[in-house]
Specification:
It is built from 16 helices and 24 strands. By secondary structure, it is of the alpha/beta class. It is globular and about 75 Å long.
Protein backbone atom coordinates (compact mmCIF):
# COMPACT_ATOMS: atom_id res chain seq x y z
CA UNK A 1 0.00 0.00 0.00
CA UNK A 2 1.29 3.46 -0.90
CA UNK A 3 1.94 5.80 2.04
CA UNK A 4 -0.45 8.51 0.82
CA UNK A 5 -3.24 5.97 0.33
CA UNK A 6 -2.70 4.72 3.89
CA UNK A 7 -2.66 8.23 5.35
CA UNK A 8 -6.13 8.93 3.92
CA UNK A 9 -7.49 6.96 6.87
CA UNK A 10 -6.15 9.61 9.28
CA UNK A 11 -8.01 12.87 9.87
CA UNK A 12 -5.34 15.21 11.21
CA UNK A 13 -1.64 14.92 10.39
CA UNK A 14 1.25 16.83 8.87
CA UNK A 15 3.78 15.33 6.48
CA UNK A 16 7.39 16.44 6.10
CA UNK A 17 8.82 15.05 2.87
CA UNK A 18 7.39 14.53 -0.61
CA UNK A 19 8.09 10.85 -1.22
CA UNK A 20 5.25 8.36 -1.53
CA UNK A 21 6.89 5.00 -0.82
CA UNK A 22 5.17 1.63 -0.82
CA UNK A 23 4.64 0.52 2.78
CA UNK A 24 5.45 -3.16 3.21
CA UNK A 25 4.83 -3.38 6.97
CA UNK A 26 4.06 -1.28 10.06
CA UNK A 27 6.39 -1.67 13.03
CA UNK A 28 6.66 -0.14 16.51
CA UNK A 29 9.87 -2.02 17.40
CA UNK A 30 12.88 -0.66 15.51
CA UNK A 31 14.53 -4.09 15.67
CA UNK A 32 11.75 -5.53 13.49
CA UNK A 33 11.98 -2.85 10.82
CA UNK A 34 12.80 -4.05 7.29
CA UNK A 35 12.94 -2.31 3.94
CA UNK A 36 9.70 -0.47 3.28
CA UNK A 37 8.44 -0.41 6.89
CA UNK A 38 6.46 2.45 8.40
CA UNK A 39 8.05 2.91 11.83
CA UNK A 40 5.71 4.17 14.57
CA UNK A 41 7.36 6.08 17.43
CA UNK A 42 5.59 5.11 20.66
CA UNK A 43 6.48 6.84 23.91
CA UNK A 44 6.45 4.12 26.57
CA UNK A 45 7.06 4.11 30.31
CA UNK A 46 10.78 3.35 30.04
CA UNK A 47 11.63 3.71 26.32
CA UNK A 48 10.71 6.42 23.82
CA UNK A 49 10.42 5.18 20.24
CA UNK A 50 11.32 8.65 18.95
CA UNK A 51 14.89 7.95 20.07
CA UNK A 52 15.05 4.99 17.66
CA UNK A 53 13.80 6.70 14.50
CA UNK A 54 17.28 6.95 12.97
CA UNK A 55 17.98 3.28 13.76
CA UNK A 56 14.71 2.37 12.04
CA UNK A 57 15.75 4.36 8.96
CA UNK A 58 19.13 2.64 8.91
CA UNK A 59 17.27 -0.68 8.89
CA UNK A 60 15.23 0.36 5.86
CA UNK A 61 12.20 2.25 7.19
CA UNK A 62 10.43 4.06 4.34
CA UNK A 63 8.57 6.51 6.60
CA UNK A 64 8.26 7.58 10.23
CA UNK A 65 5.08 8.23 12.23
CA UNK A 66 5.82 10.45 15.23
CA UNK A 67 4.44 13.00 17.67
CA UNK A 68 7.31 15.42 17.16
CA UNK A 69 10.02 16.11 14.61
CA UNK A 70 12.78 13.50 14.57
CA UNK A 71 16.16 13.41 12.88
CA UNK A 72 15.93 11.73 9.46
CA UNK A 73 17.96 11.55 6.26
CA UNK A 74 17.45 11.15 2.53
CA UNK A 75 14.08 12.98 2.55
CA UNK A 76 12.38 10.13 4.43
CA UNK A 77 8.74 11.20 5.03
CA UNK A 78 7.89 11.99 8.65
CA UNK A 79 4.20 12.09 9.55
CA UNK A 80 3.39 14.08 12.70
CA UNK A 81 0.21 13.24 14.63
CA UNK A 82 -1.08 14.14 18.09
CA UNK A 83 -1.17 10.57 19.35
CA UNK A 84 0.86 7.84 17.63
CA UNK A 85 -0.86 5.00 19.55
CA UNK A 86 -4.29 6.10 18.37
CA UNK A 87 -3.04 6.69 14.82
CA UNK A 88 -1.29 3.31 14.82
CA UNK A 89 -4.57 1.54 15.63
CA UNK A 90 -6.32 3.29 12.73
CA UNK A 91 -3.50 2.59 10.27
CA UNK A 92 -3.05 -1.03 11.37
CA UNK A 93 -6.78 -1.68 10.91
CA UNK A 94 -6.62 -0.19 7.40
CA UNK A 95 -3.29 -1.79 6.42
CA UNK A 96 -4.48 -5.30 7.31
CA UNK A 97 -7.85 -4.85 5.59
CA UNK A 98 -10.07 -4.45 8.68
CA UNK A 99 -9.89 -8.17 9.54
CA UNK A 100 -12.25 -8.08 12.54
CA UNK A 101 -15.06 -6.99 10.22
CA UNK A 102 -14.75 -10.45 8.67
CA UNK A 103 -14.63 -12.37 11.97
CA UNK A 104 -17.24 -13.15 14.60
CA UNK A 105 -15.29 -11.65 17.52
CA UNK A 106 -16.05 -12.34 21.19
CA UNK A 107 -14.27 -10.29 23.89
CA UNK A 108 -14.15 -11.37 27.53
CA UNK A 109 -13.30 -8.95 30.33
CA UNK A 110 -13.44 -9.15 34.13
CA UNK A 111 -11.11 -9.61 37.08
CA UNK A 112 -11.22 -13.40 37.25
CA UNK A 113 -12.16 -16.18 34.86
CA UNK A 114 -11.16 -14.60 31.53
CA UNK A 115 -8.74 -17.36 30.54
CA UNK A 116 -11.02 -20.23 31.51
CA UNK A 117 -14.08 -18.63 29.89
CA UNK A 118 -12.30 -17.92 26.59
CA UNK A 119 -11.06 -21.51 26.45
CA UNK A 120 -14.57 -22.79 27.17
CA UNK A 121 -15.95 -20.64 24.35
CA UNK A 122 -13.22 -21.87 22.01
CA UNK A 123 -14.06 -25.49 22.90
CA UNK A 124 -17.77 -24.97 22.17
CA UNK A 125 -17.04 -23.22 18.86
CA UNK A 126 -14.76 -26.09 17.82
CA UNK A 127 -17.48 -28.60 18.73
CA UNK A 128 -19.72 -26.66 16.34
CA UNK A 129 -17.15 -27.13 13.55
CA UNK A 130 -15.86 -23.55 13.53
CA UNK A 131 -12.29 -22.59 12.70
CA UNK A 132 -11.18 -20.64 15.76
CA UNK A 133 -8.65 -18.11 16.94
CA UNK A 134 -7.86 -17.30 20.57
CA UNK A 135 -5.92 -14.42 22.12
CA UNK A 136 -5.16 -14.38 25.84
CA UNK A 137 -2.86 -14.53 28.82
CA UNK A 138 -1.28 -17.86 27.87
CA UNK A 139 -0.80 -17.53 24.11
CA UNK A 140 -2.28 -16.54 20.78
CA UNK A 141 -3.77 -19.57 19.06
CA UNK A 142 -4.80 -19.81 15.40
CA UNK A 143 -6.60 -23.09 14.89
CA UNK A 144 -4.06 -25.44 16.52
CA UNK A 145 -0.90 -23.34 16.19
CA UNK A 146 0.26 -21.33 19.21
CA UNK A 147 2.24 -18.09 19.38
CA UNK A 148 3.85 -16.50 22.45
CA UNK A 149 2.43 -13.29 23.92
CA UNK A 150 3.83 -10.62 26.26
CA UNK A 151 0.53 -9.07 27.39
CA UNK A 152 -2.93 -10.50 28.05
CA UNK A 153 -4.14 -8.23 25.24
CA UNK A 154 -1.41 -7.24 22.75
CA UNK A 155 -0.96 -3.79 21.19
CA UNK A 156 -3.31 -2.83 18.35
CA UNK A 157 -0.61 -3.42 15.74
CA UNK A 158 -0.01 -7.00 16.89
CA UNK A 159 -3.73 -7.63 17.25
CA UNK A 160 -4.61 -6.53 13.73
CA UNK A 161 -1.72 -8.50 12.19
CA UNK A 162 -2.82 -11.64 14.05
CA UNK A 163 -6.46 -11.13 13.04
CA UNK A 164 -5.27 -10.85 9.43
CA UNK A 165 -3.37 -14.09 9.92
CA UNK A 166 -6.56 -15.68 11.22
CA UNK A 167 -8.43 -14.57 8.10
CA UNK A 168 -5.65 -16.02 5.94
CA UNK A 169 -6.04 -19.32 7.83
CA UNK A 170 -9.81 -19.35 7.20
CA UNK A 171 -10.70 -18.65 10.85
CA UNK A 172 -14.34 -17.60 11.21
CA UNK A 173 -14.69 -17.13 14.98
CA UNK A 174 -12.22 -15.51 17.38
CA UNK A 175 -12.34 -15.06 21.15
CA UNK A 176 -10.10 -12.73 23.12
CA UNK A 177 -9.30 -11.84 26.71
CA UNK A 178 -9.61 -8.07 27.04
CA UNK A 179 -7.71 -6.61 29.99
CA UNK A 180 -8.53 -3.32 31.70
CA UNK A 181 -5.03 -2.07 30.81
CA UNK A 182 -5.66 -2.77 27.12
CA UNK A 183 -9.00 -0.99 27.17
CA UNK A 184 -7.61 2.05 28.98
CA UNK A 185 -4.56 2.23 26.68
CA UNK A 186 -6.61 1.86 23.51
CA UNK A 187 -5.03 -1.40 22.38
CA UNK A 188 -8.38 -2.73 21.13
CA UNK A 189 -9.28 0.40 19.16
CA UNK A 190 -10.49 -0.79 15.77
CA UNK A 191 -11.62 -4.23 16.96
CA UNK A 192 -15.17 -4.89 15.82
CA UNK A 193 -16.55 -6.98 18.67
CA UNK A 194 -19.80 -8.85 18.13
CA UNK A 195 -20.13 -10.15 21.69
CA UNK A 196 -18.71 -8.65 24.90
CA UNK A 197 -18.66 -10.81 28.05
CA UNK A 198 -18.26 -9.63 31.65
CA UNK A 199 -17.17 -12.22 34.23
CA UNK A 200 -16.85 -10.33 37.54
CA UNK A 201 -15.22 -7.36 39.26
CA UNK A 202 -13.05 -7.45 42.37
CA UNK A 203 -9.90 -5.67 43.54
CA UNK A 204 -6.94 -5.90 41.18
CA UNK A 205 -4.56 -3.58 39.29
CA UNK A 206 -5.13 -0.61 41.60
CA UNK A 207 -1.45 0.22 41.17
CA UNK A 208 -2.49 1.27 37.66
CA UNK A 209 -6.16 2.32 37.96
CA UNK A 210 -5.83 3.76 41.53
CA UNK A 211 -9.52 3.33 42.47
CA UNK A 212 -12.15 0.64 42.01
CA UNK A 213 -14.35 3.12 40.14
CA UNK A 214 -11.59 3.79 37.61
CA UNK A 215 -10.96 0.05 37.28
CA UNK A 216 -14.68 -0.61 36.74
CA UNK A 217 -14.89 2.24 34.21
CA UNK A 218 -11.94 0.87 32.22
CA UNK A 219 -13.63 -2.50 31.79
CA UNK A 220 -16.82 -0.72 30.85
CA UNK A 221 -15.14 0.60 27.70
CA UNK A 222 -15.58 -2.83 26.11
CA UNK A 223 -19.36 -2.48 26.33
CA UNK A 224 -19.45 1.18 25.35
CA UNK A 225 -17.33 0.37 22.29
CA UNK A 226 -19.84 -2.17 20.97
CA UNK A 227 -21.31 0.83 19.14
CA UNK A 228 -24.60 2.65 19.17
CA UNK A 229 -26.11 1.59 15.83
CA UNK A 230 -28.30 -1.46 15.28
CA UNK A 231 -27.16 -3.68 12.43
CA UNK A 232 -29.86 -6.34 12.44
CA UNK A 233 -27.94 -8.70 10.17
CA UNK A 234 -24.99 -8.56 12.57
CA UNK A 235 -26.37 -7.80 16.06
CA UNK A 236 -24.19 -6.95 19.04
CA UNK A 237 -24.57 -8.61 22.45
CA UNK A 238 -23.44 -7.75 25.98
CA UNK A 239 -23.24 -10.84 28.22
CA UNK A 240 -23.37 -9.68 31.85
CA UNK A 241 -23.02 -11.45 35.20
CA UNK A 242 -26.34 -10.71 36.89
CA UNK A 243 -24.89 -11.54 40.32
CA UNK A 244 -22.25 -8.79 40.06
CA UNK A 245 -23.27 -5.20 40.88
CA UNK A 246 -21.01 -3.78 38.16
CA UNK A 247 -23.32 -5.26 35.52
CA UNK A 248 -25.95 -2.60 36.25
CA UNK A 249 -23.38 0.05 35.39
CA UNK A 250 -22.39 -1.72 32.18
CA UNK A 251 -26.04 -2.00 31.11
CA UNK A 252 -26.15 1.81 30.94
CA UNK A 253 -22.99 1.97 28.81
CA UNK A 254 -24.18 -0.15 25.92
CA UNK A 255 -26.98 -0.09 23.37
CA UNK A 256 -26.30 -3.76 22.52
CA UNK A 257 -28.73 -6.59 23.29
CA UNK A 258 -28.23 -7.58 26.94
CA UNK A 259 -28.18 -11.19 28.10
CA UNK A 260 -27.66 -11.86 31.79
CA UNK A 261 -26.43 -15.03 33.49
CA UNK A 262 -26.14 -15.97 37.12
CA UNK A 263 -26.88 -18.25 40.04
CA UNK A 264 -28.51 -16.10 42.72
CA UNK A 265 -30.28 -13.24 40.91
CA UNK A 266 -33.03 -13.85 38.37
CA UNK A 267 -31.23 -13.95 35.01
CA UNK A 268 -31.82 -14.98 31.39
CA UNK A 269 -29.48 -17.95 31.79
CA UNK A 270 -29.14 -19.60 35.19
CA UNK A 271 -27.65 -22.56 37.04
CA UNK A 272 -29.88 -24.16 39.66
CA UNK A 273 -29.64 -27.24 41.90
CA UNK A 274 -25.82 -27.15 41.86
CA UNK A 275 -24.16 -30.29 43.22
CA UNK A 276 -20.41 -30.51 43.53
CA UNK A 277 -17.84 -33.21 44.25
CA UNK A 278 -14.08 -33.55 43.96
CA UNK A 279 -14.49 -34.95 40.44
CA UNK A 280 -17.06 -32.65 38.88
CA UNK A 281 -20.18 -30.51 39.04
CA UNK A 282 -23.84 -31.10 38.17
CA UNK A 283 -26.50 -28.42 37.78
CA UNK A 284 -29.74 -27.58 36.02
CA UNK A 285 -29.30 -25.08 33.19
CA UNK A 286 -32.26 -22.72 32.80
CA UNK A 287 -32.54 -20.80 29.51
CA UNK A 288 -35.36 -18.87 27.81
CA UNK A 289 -35.81 -21.86 25.49
CA UNK A 290 -35.79 -24.68 28.04
CA UNK A 291 -34.22 -26.43 31.01
CA UNK A 292 -31.36 -28.91 30.65
CA UNK A 293 -29.30 -31.15 32.98
CA UNK A 294 -25.57 -30.35 32.85
CA UNK A 295 -22.67 -32.46 34.06
CA UNK A 296 -19.08 -31.27 33.75
CA UNK A 297 -15.68 -32.37 34.98
CA UNK A 298 -14.76 -28.96 36.40
CA UNK A 299 -15.43 -28.06 40.03
CA UNK A 300 -16.14 -24.83 41.84
CA UNK A 301 -18.90 -22.24 41.84
CA UNK A 302 -16.57 -19.93 39.91
CA UNK A 303 -16.44 -22.49 37.11
CA UNK A 304 -20.24 -22.62 37.03
CA UNK A 305 -20.18 -18.86 36.42
CA UNK A 306 -17.49 -19.31 33.75
CA UNK A 307 -19.47 -21.97 31.91
CA UNK A 308 -22.68 -19.94 32.12
CA UNK A 309 -20.86 -17.01 30.50
CA UNK A 310 -19.52 -19.32 27.77
CA UNK A 311 -22.97 -20.82 27.17
CA UNK A 312 -24.54 -17.36 26.86
CA UNK A 313 -21.83 -16.11 24.51
CA UNK A 314 -22.10 -19.09 22.19
CA UNK A 315 -25.91 -19.20 22.23
CA UNK A 316 -26.07 -15.63 20.92
CA UNK A 317 -23.38 -16.61 18.40
CA UNK A 318 -25.78 -19.07 16.84
CA UNK A 319 -24.52 -22.34 18.35
CA UNK A 320 -27.23 -24.89 19.18
CA UNK A 321 -27.84 -25.83 22.81
CA UNK A 322 -27.23 -29.50 21.94
CA UNK A 323 -23.75 -28.71 20.61
CA UNK A 324 -23.00 -26.48 23.60
CA UNK A 325 -23.98 -29.12 26.15
CA UNK A 326 -21.96 -31.79 24.37
CA UNK A 327 -18.87 -29.56 24.52
CA UNK A 328 -19.45 -28.61 28.17
CA UNK A 329 -19.54 -32.28 29.23
CA UNK A 330 -16.07 -32.83 27.79
CA UNK A 331 -14.47 -29.60 29.03
CA UNK A 332 -11.03 -30.10 30.56
CA UNK A 333 -9.34 -27.69 32.94
CA UNK A 334 -7.03 -24.98 31.64
CA UNK A 335 -3.33 -25.15 32.50
CA UNK A 336 -2.76 -23.56 35.91
CA UNK A 337 -6.48 -23.08 36.63
CA UNK A 338 -7.55 -25.40 39.46
CA UNK A 339 -5.14 -27.93 37.97
CA UNK A 340 -4.66 -31.19 39.85
CA UNK A 341 -1.15 -32.59 40.29
CA UNK A 342 -1.35 -36.37 40.59
CA UNK A 343 1.84 -38.28 41.27
CA UNK A 344 0.19 -41.04 43.26
CA UNK A 345 0.38 -39.14 46.56
CA UNK A 346 -2.37 -39.66 49.14
CA UNK A 347 -3.16 -35.95 49.43
CA UNK A 348 -4.45 -33.46 46.86
CA UNK A 349 -2.28 -30.79 45.19
CA UNK A 350 -3.92 -28.02 43.17
CA UNK A 351 -2.17 -25.35 41.08
CA UNK A 352 -4.21 -22.19 40.54
CA UNK A 353 -3.61 -18.72 39.11
CA UNK A 354 -5.64 -17.04 41.90
CA UNK A 355 -3.82 -13.76 42.60
CA UNK A 356 -6.61 -11.54 43.91
CA UNK A 357 -8.41 -11.77 47.27
CA UNK A 358 -11.66 -12.68 45.53
CA UNK A 359 -10.21 -15.40 43.30
CA UNK A 360 -8.23 -16.92 46.20
CA UNK A 361 -11.37 -16.96 48.33
CA UNK A 362 -13.31 -18.67 45.54
CA UNK A 363 -10.69 -21.40 45.19
CA UNK A 364 -10.36 -22.05 48.92
CA UNK A 365 -14.14 -22.07 49.47
CA UNK A 366 -14.45 -24.62 46.67
CA UNK A 367 -11.76 -26.82 48.22
CA UNK A 368 -13.55 -26.67 51.58
CA UNK A 369 -16.60 -28.27 49.97
CA UNK A 370 -14.87 -31.58 49.30
CA UNK A 371 -11.83 -31.72 51.62
CA UNK A 372 -12.48 -33.05 55.13
CA UNK A 373 -8.88 -32.79 56.32
CA UNK A 374 -6.37 -29.93 56.47
CA UNK A 375 -6.08 -27.31 53.73
CA UNK A 376 -2.65 -25.85 53.03
CA UNK A 377 -2.26 -22.75 50.86
CA UNK A 378 1.00 -21.42 49.44
CA UNK A 379 0.48 -17.80 48.41
CA UNK A 380 2.49 -14.67 47.69
CA UNK A 381 1.93 -11.22 46.20
CA UNK A 382 3.64 -9.61 43.22
CA UNK A 383 6.11 -6.78 43.58
CA UNK A 384 5.57 -3.39 41.89
CA UNK A 385 1.83 -4.04 42.05
CA UNK A 386 -1.05 -2.84 44.23
CA UNK A 387 0.28 -3.17 47.82
CA UNK A 388 -3.16 -2.66 49.40
CA UNK A 389 -4.30 -6.16 48.44
CA UNK A 390 -1.38 -7.88 50.23
CA UNK A 391 -2.89 -7.90 53.75
CA UNK A 392 -6.25 -8.86 52.20
CA UNK A 393 -4.69 -11.86 50.46
CA UNK A 394 -3.19 -12.94 53.77
CA UNK A 395 -6.53 -12.53 55.54
CA UNK A 396 -8.27 -14.76 52.99
CA UNK A 397 -5.53 -17.39 53.33
CA UNK A 398 -5.78 -17.42 57.13
CA UNK A 399 -9.59 -17.49 57.07
CA UNK A 400 -9.99 -20.47 54.77
CA UNK A 401 -6.80 -22.52 55.13
CA UNK A 402 -5.61 -24.52 58.12
CA UNK A 403 -1.96 -24.02 57.19
CA UNK A 404 -1.34 -20.67 55.42
CA UNK A 405 2.16 -20.35 53.97
CA UNK A 406 3.20 -16.90 52.76
CA UNK A 407 5.99 -16.75 50.19
CA UNK A 408 7.31 -14.87 47.15
CA UNK A 409 5.41 -14.54 43.89
CA UNK A 410 7.18 -12.27 41.38
CA UNK A 411 8.86 -9.73 43.70
CA UNK A 412 10.32 -7.82 40.72
CA UNK A 413 12.19 -4.74 42.01
CA UNK A 414 10.79 -4.96 45.56
CA UNK A 415 12.37 -6.66 48.56
CA UNK A 416 10.55 -10.03 48.95
CA UNK A 417 10.77 -9.71 52.75
CA UNK A 418 9.06 -6.32 52.62
CA UNK A 419 6.21 -7.84 50.59
CA UNK A 420 5.84 -10.59 53.20
CA UNK A 421 5.73 -7.94 55.94
CA UNK A 422 2.87 -6.24 54.10
CA UNK A 423 0.99 -9.55 54.00
CA UNK A 424 1.69 -10.31 57.65
CA UNK A 425 0.38 -6.88 58.71
CA UNK A 426 -3.12 -8.05 57.91
CA UNK A 427 -3.03 -11.14 60.12
CA UNK A 428 -1.08 -10.18 63.23
CA UNK A 429 -1.61 -12.71 65.99
CA UNK A 430 -2.90 -15.36 63.58
CA UNK A 431 -1.29 -18.71 62.72
CA UNK A 432 0.76 -18.76 59.52
CA UNK A 433 4.19 -19.57 58.11
CA UNK A 434 6.39 -17.16 56.14
CA UNK A 435 8.98 -18.77 53.84
CA UNK A 436 10.46 -16.26 51.43
CA UNK A 437 11.84 -18.86 48.98
CA UNK A 438 8.89 -20.13 46.92
CA UNK A 439 10.46 -23.52 46.17
CA UNK A 440 11.12 -24.10 49.87
CA UNK A 441 7.55 -23.06 50.69
CA UNK A 442 6.14 -25.63 48.27
CA UNK A 443 8.47 -28.34 49.62
CA UNK A 444 7.42 -27.43 53.18
CA UNK A 445 3.73 -27.85 52.35
CA UNK A 446 4.24 -31.19 50.63
CA UNK A 447 6.51 -32.52 53.39
CA UNK A 448 3.88 -31.72 56.03
CA UNK A 449 0.72 -32.85 54.24
CA UNK A 450 -0.93 -36.04 55.46
CA UNK A 451 -3.39 -38.44 53.90
CA UNK A 452 -6.57 -36.65 52.81
CA UNK A 453 -5.12 -33.14 53.09
CA UNK A 454 -5.19 -30.63 50.23
CA UNK A 455 -2.46 -28.19 49.15
CA UNK A 456 -3.37 -25.17 47.02
CA UNK A 457 -0.37 -23.53 45.36
CA UNK A 458 -1.78 -20.19 44.24
CA UNK A 459 -0.80 -17.06 42.39
CA UNK A 460 1.28 -18.13 39.41
CA UNK A 461 -0.75 -20.87 37.73
CA UNK A 462 0.50 -21.42 34.17
CA UNK A 463 3.54 -19.15 34.57
CA UNK A 464 6.89 -20.86 34.04
CA UNK A 465 9.09 -18.08 35.40
CA UNK A 466 9.78 -15.96 38.46
CA UNK A 467 10.85 -12.32 38.26
CA UNK A 468 13.34 -11.38 40.98
CA UNK A 469 15.00 -7.99 40.66
CA UNK A 470 15.82 -7.36 37.02
CA UNK A 471 16.22 -11.07 36.26
CA UNK A 472 13.72 -13.69 35.14
CA UNK A 473 14.32 -17.25 36.32
CA UNK A 474 12.73 -20.49 35.18
CA UNK A 475 10.13 -21.50 37.76
CA UNK A 476 7.06 -23.69 37.35
CA UNK A 477 4.86 -24.40 40.40
CA UNK A 478 3.68 -27.67 38.89
CA UNK A 479 7.19 -28.96 38.17
CA UNK A 480 8.39 -27.96 41.64
CA UNK A 481 5.43 -29.74 43.23
CA UNK A 482 6.06 -32.90 41.19
CA UNK A 483 9.75 -32.94 42.17
CA UNK A 484 8.85 -32.44 45.83
CA UNK A 485 6.30 -35.28 45.77
CA UNK A 486 8.76 -37.61 44.06
CA UNK A 487 11.47 -36.77 46.59
CA UNK A 488 9.01 -37.42 49.40
CA UNK A 489 8.07 -40.78 47.93
CA UNK A 490 11.70 -41.80 47.51
CA UNK A 491 12.33 -41.02 51.17
CA UNK A 492 9.22 -42.63 52.63
CA UNK A 493 8.28 -45.20 50.00
CA UNK A 494 5.28 -45.26 47.69
CA UNK A 495 2.79 -45.88 50.49
CA UNK A 496 2.56 -42.86 52.78
CA UNK A 497 -0.16 -44.28 55.06
CA UNK A 498 2.01 -43.74 58.12
CA UNK A 499 2.53 -40.03 57.54
Amino acid sequence: MKLKALLKYLYQYHVYGEQNPTISSIEMDSRKVTKGSLFVCIKGYTVDGHDFALEAINRGAAAILAERKVHVKDDIPVIIVKNTKRAMAILADAFYGQPTHKLHLIGVTGTNGKTTTTHMIEKILKEAGKNTGLIGTMYIKIKEKQYDVKNTTPESLTLQSMFKKMIDENVTNAVMEVSSHALHMGRVHGCDFDVAVFTNLSQDHLDYHHTMDEYRNAKGLLFAQLGNAYHHEKPKFAILNGDDLASKYYEHLTSAHIITYGIDAECDIMAKNIKMSATGTMFTLVTPDGTYPVQMKLVGKFNVYNVLAAIAATLVSGISIETILKAVQSLEGVRGRFELVNEGQNFTVIIDYAHTPDSLENVLKTVKQFVDHKIFVVIGCGGDRDPSKRPKMAQVAVKYADVPIFTSDNPRSEDPLAILKDMESGVEGEYFHSIVNREQAIYFAIANAKKGDCIVIAGKGHETYQQIGSETFEFDDKKVAIHAIRELRSKHGKNQEGK
